[in-house]
Specification:
Largest sheet: 9 strands, mixed
Number of strands: 21
Helix content: 40-55%
Distance between the termini: 45 Å
Number of helices: 25
Oligomer: single chain
Shape: globular
Structural class: alpha+beta
Strand content: 15-25%
């Protein structure tokens, strides 16, 4: 008999213990679910009862269908998923089945788009049906238990986050969006909000603070630019060599009047955006008349394929995102003809560039031959016109073209950028930033001839100390706090800033009379949603076997061994999964092992382990701890107090950890068997701890 894997949907034998495709356990009582931080959008139609009154049900059905499809399309456009329809309400989730590092921002962009598109929908509904629709929207971010099975209809979210989003929607004014404070903080500076107001929500004993969404500022797509407003920011440290390389390359560009291309690699939050910002500032001070054109590749949205180039067009032409069409077109034509003044304004070359730039920036140009043609023809035209535009800029003054976040870019954009690099001439320095996975997916991208790459790694310990000192400029901050923060951030500047900001937001770190005062614990503080999102998104991008292996490794600890993972997943999938995780830089193979004959691995970053562990459902986590303890016992613990204590800690997590009562709720015999195995180990480990004068640990065990 064959059945479907509850995790990935692959067909497996009914008596299989593990899925051959993803390594997930095929066992009753272990559904495909994870703990996640999710942003929920709850949209409801205003006045649906009045809408149906006196109208034919078929007509009402057409209206409601158009409304539901509009809301669904907006949610999915920004990477969300529609979890359910409840009457006239639509519940969208951002972060299920896969996390994005900017889920709160995506939900708010979707909410704005819903209201915009409802307005456009009304333009057709009012004359046809005599109705004008309006929606109320509530958005909330929180922790849920979410079903993640692929292709199944059993998806659900358990948690208060959905209820609160619904309550926010109920108190919102028609046509407006109310966002919970956690969503506001996670979305960052890309939006404007009304002041926070305490709301009385049904079912809540305390006033619930929320803010009305007023609008957007621009598309933010980088974790270093998303997230909470930066209440602390340090001067750039540890990047002198990289900045010098960029400036030397620019000098070569200006002196030799030739194009150079630099691709800057680095993981999220490592400081790519900060480096290029410092470079642009230094370049504009050091090179007279230098022009810097900047664009960013967004992670989601509508019409974003050439968004980075569209930003460059708007900057070059001095136009805003909401510039009226006629004014935008006039500025486009004026800029193009001024830059290409060596040609007649009505020449074919000028016309081609105008058409290409208008298409790129979605500016309506009468009789544009690129309107309505196949995408491959548009790409070909852009590949010819954009190098002319960049060359024309460089003919007037040295030019830096900066494109950030290439890892989000679509293939048509990358092809156009390649053509700009290959075909443009003159003093042009093209600088792009990307995460390491972009290099893995595009190993040959423009890295030939006058091109080179720069890789940013974690800050050295001394540089991280300097950054912490700049952020916490006070001797009143305990040394233990600095050390704990540096240990958690592990050389990532963005993580360090966000960890400090979390302490400030929580009131544990306050500024008084020019000095910081600390009252709390850095080690026990919650991980900011900004960091949680970045790391969870990376984990969710793994293949199913790699993700399962990483989760089981997180149960073992910061250090782990392959056979321990095989206790909870398909043994044949462990080795390939670990190889993949090592290649992706998530784990490292240690030089030596604390267990004879076993290769020892470690998480490269403790925060990755923390986020991965936090995503495992409590019941599954407890069962995995019990299996790890059993495996460790099989190694033999006689005379090894350290190993004995390690086994005891896993048994303790299995039997008394958070939610451990859920692990064997319907399997009393299995639970009793674990207790029987654990009891003598816990007694022996406690006695061993007392013998070492570790009385507190002994009592704990």
């Amino acid at each position: 008999m064959l059945v479907g894997c509850p995790h990935c949907g692959a067909i497996v034998s009914a008596d299989a213990r593990f899925c051959h495709s993803c390594g997930h356990a095929i066992a009753p009582g272990e559904p495909a679910e994870e703990r996640k931080v999710v942003t929920v959008l709850f949209a409801d139609l205003v006045g649906s009862t009045a809408l149906a009154e006196g109208r034919d049900p078929e007509r009402v059905g057409r209206i409601l269908s158009a409304y539901a499809e509009t809301v669904r399309d907006a949610i999915e456009n920004w990477g969300g998923s529609v979890e359910k329809f409840i009457g006239d309400a639509v519940v969208g989730a951002f972060g299920i089945p896969a996390t994005h590092e900017d889920d709160p921002a995506r939900a708010l962009w979707a909410a704005l788009e819903i209201n915009d598109r409802i307005g456009a929908l009304n333009a057709g509904l009012e004359p046809a049906h005599g109705v004008v629709l309006s929606v109320r929207i509530g958005v909330n971010t929180g922790d849920v238990l979410a079903a993640t099975a692929v292709g199944l209809d059993q998806r659900f979210m358990a948690g208060d986050v959905v209820n609160v989003a619904a309550r926010l929607q109920q108190v919102a004014e028609p046509g407006t969006v109310l966002a919970a404070i956690r969503t506001v903080e996670g979305a960052g500076e890309a939006f404007s909000f009304a002041p926070a107001a305490p709301l009385s929500l049904k079912g809540k004993t305390e006033p619930f603070p929320a803010r009305r969404l007023l609008g957007s500022k621009t598309i933010a797509s980088s974790p270093a630019g998303a997230g909470r407003t930066r209440v602390v920011q340090a001067p750039m440290v540890g990047r002198d060599r990289e900045l010098r390389l960029l400036m030397e390359t620019l000098t070569d560009v200006v002196d030799g009047a030739r194009l150079r291309f630099t691709l800057i690699f680095g993981p999220a939050g490592i400081g790519k955006s900060r480096l290029v910002r410092e470079f642009i500032e230094a370049a504009q001070k050091g090179v007279a008349g230098l022009v810097a054109l900047r664009g960013r590749c967004p992670s989601a949205g509508r019409g974003i394929t050439y968004w980075a180039l569209a930003e460059i067009v708007r900057q070059a032409c001095g136009m805003s995102l909401d510039e009226p069409g006629d004014e935008a077109l006039a500025k486009l034509r004026d800029t193009t003809r001024r830059l290409m003044d060596d040609r007649a304004p009505d020449s074919r070359d000028v016309r081609d560039v105008e058409c290409a730039l208008a298409t790129t920036a979605s500016i309506r140009l009468p009789n544009n031959p690129l309107d309505g043609v196949r995408p491959i023809e548009v790409a070909s035209a852009l590949g010819m016109a954009w190098p002319r535009f960049v060359t024309a800029h460089a003919r007037r003054s040295p030019t830096v073209v900066l494109v950030e976040d290439l890892h989000w870019a679509d293939e048509p954009f990358l092809a156009t950028l390649q053509n700009i690099v290959r075909r443009s001439t003159g003093p042009v320095h093209i600088v792009a930033t990307a995460r390491p996975e972009f290099g893995d997916a595009h190993p040959d991208f423009s890295l030939a001839g006058d091109a080179h790459s720069i890789s940013l790694s974690a800050l050295a310990d001394l540089d991280a100390e300097r950054m912490a000192s700049a952020l916490l400029d006070s001797d009143s901050v305990p040394a233990g706090l600095r050390s704990a923060l540096l240990d958690r951030a592990e050389g990532n500047p963005f993580f360090l800033e966000q960890l400090i900001a979390e302490l400030i937001d929580a009131g544990s770190l306050t500024r008084s009379n020019g000095s910081w005062r600390f009252d709390g614990s850095a080690e026990g503080s919650a991980l900011p949603d900004t960091i949680q999102g970045v790391l969870a998104a990376r984990v969710d991008r793994l293949s199913a076997p790699e993700k399962r292996a990483l989760q089981e490794a997180a149960v073992v600890g910061r250090i782990f061994w392959a056979p321990a993972l095989a206790e909870s997943m398909d043994a044949n999938a462990v080795e390939p999964a670990l190889a993949g995780l090592e290649a992706k830089g998530l784990i490292v193979l240690r030089d030596s092992s604390s267990i004879a004959g076993q290769a020892e691995f470690a998480f490269k970053h403790a925060l990755v382990r923390d986020v991965t562990y936090g995503g495992i459902p409590l019941a599954r986590r407890a069962r995995s701890h019990a299996r790890v303890a059993t495996w460790l016992e099989s190694l033999g613990s006689a005379g090894d107090d350290a190993l004995l204590e390690f086994i005891a800690l896993h048994y303790r997590a299995a039997l008394t950890g958070e939610g451990s009562d859920l692990a064997w709720a319907d399997e009393a015999q299995a639970r009793d068997a674990v207790r029987d195995r654990a009891f003598p180990v816990l007694i022996a480990a406690g006695a061993a701890a007392r013998n070492r004068n570790a009385t507190e640990r002994g009592l704990e065990l």
